[in-house]
Amino acid sequence: MIQMSLAEVAEAVGGRLTPDAVGTVAGKVTVDSRAVAPGDLFVAVPGERVDGHDFLAAAADAGAVAALATRPDGALPCVVVDEPVAALGRLAAAVHTRLAGAGGARGHRLVTVGITGSSGKTSTKDLLGQVLATAGATVSPPGSYNNDIGLPLTVLDADEDTRFLLLEMGSRGRGHIARLCRVARPDVGVVLNVGSAHLGEFGSADEIAVAKGELVEALPAGGTAVLNADDPRVIGMAPRTRARVVPTGRSAAADVRAEDVALDEAGRAGFTLVAGGARAAVRLQVVGEHQVANALSAAAAALAAGMAPDAVAAALSAAVPRSRWRMEVTRRDDGVTVVNDAYNANPESMRAALAALAGLPARRRVAVLGAMAELGPGAADEHERLGRDAVAAGVDLVVAVGPDAVGIADGALAAGAREDGDADGGADRRAVRVPDRAAARELLTEVLVPGDVVLVKASRSYGLEVLAADLLAAGAGA
Ligand SMILES: Nc1ncnc2c1ncn2[C@@H]1O[C@H](COP(=O)(O)OP(=O)(O)O)[C@@H](O)[C@H]1O
Ligand SMILES: [Mg+2]
């Protein structure tokens, strides 16, 4: 973070300094005592399993100058606050205000981009991060740092040299994104889609749209709202913002759009990026047609940040997958291909992954699917529908993993897949249920043959990335 004295930190967060708290934060801000380096500020977060306050001594040993904490214990100088997470947000807000302020110390103004949506936030953030980095110093969070802790930590990674600050914004209810925008108000706001992620908590898709739209409501008059014109609930947010609206998508009505979309033999999309009068060829390195929408949103944000269309197209074409367990396509030595998309799942992302699987050349397509969490009352129907859609998408073998995923197999069977017969048998569509990952691994070890492509996907809590790793290990040196 930018250098700040502990007195300045205390003032920014409204905290009280312990008598030994003198000095300056010269390093970074972190909530993980194991990541502390000399000069850092350690934030003692009271978590569900561990309480950061138990690690004040460890942070001191690692060289922390001080902690943001509720209960000082003498091990480390402290800025004492009631709620360390809220204080972290206030610290980030103070730093952001300073960096976004007129001119900036290096003669440029920081451009902050916020990204939200039900699916594709991290994928879009990773694309845009790589695009903006070609134009100037960019801070973009690792993985999915999109909540009240991850977002301020990302803001605090920025300093006077930073040109572009990229923020992923997650939401599980009304007010969440508004709160994140109070930490760091974006100049450019991107809304990707409104789907059914966390539908159980929200209640309805319209309610999700209300919550996601808080991003465009927070934008200033001089800002830009990048809205997906192919999603009615997203383009419907246009009246909620003072900012200039840039519609993106496949339709002619979109200002930043993709024409001539085609997938290559590895399932990667190429298209012509059309923006204003400019046209430029893009060939994505990331897999799946759903990445076209993400790339268009990233392109519109980069154009709003001042980049030229040619430069945007070139940088998009060079961007590689950054975050793990999202459409990681790996071919085993024995010729079986594993597609690890196990980071998370909801109905829309499942469908995107099935479409991507359909786009890959294969002798046989296998979808190893676990359940989708947090869908609320519609969950049973959604799992059934997914099973049907898997068969419709041309999946030859559906493997439903775990008791919560049984409905997926039921749906596949209802759509004409068969339960019996050889799993590795001919052209018949098949669907099987297995109780857990171990059983899935056993079955797959038996049935996979060269030329098969296996998609592995479920909600985060089911941990199917372990199965994907097992499948890759099983094929190593085969
Ligand atoms: N634009 C999109 N539309 C639908 N599904 C998508 C889209 N982008 C990504 N996905 C799917 O969602 C999964 C999660 O993607 P990710 O970028 O991590 O989203 P988020 O950060 O919003 O959770 C991916 O593995 C992919 O299957
Ligand atoms: Mg994410």
Automatic annotation (TrEMBL):
GO terms for molecular function: ATP binding; UDP-N-acetylmuramoyl-tripeptide-D-alanyl-D-alanine ligase activity; UDP-N-acetylmuramoylalanyl-D-glutamyl-2,6-diaminopimelate-D-alanyl-D-alanine ligase activity. ATP binds at G117, S118, S119, G120, K121, T122, S123. The keyword Amino-acid biosynthesis does not apply. One of its GO terms (biological process) is cell division. Pathway: Cell wall biogenesis; peptidoglycan biosynthesis. It is an enzyme of class 6 (ligase). It is found in: Cytoplasm. InterPro entries: Mur-like_cat_sf, Mur_ligase_C, Mur_ligase_C_dom_sf, Mur_ligase_cen, Mur_ligase_N, MurCDEF_CellWall_CoF430Synth, MurE/MurF_N, UDP-N-AcMur_synth. Residues 326-460 form the Mur ligase C-terminal domain. Its EC number is 6.3.2.10. GO terms for cellular component: cytoplasm. The keyword Cytoplasm applies. Belongs to the MurCDEF family. MurF subfamily. NCBIfam families: murF. This is UDP-N-acetylmuramoyl-tripeptide--D-alanyl-D-alanine ligase. The lineage of its organism: Bacteria, Bacillati, Actinomycetota, Actinomycetes, Geodermatophilales.
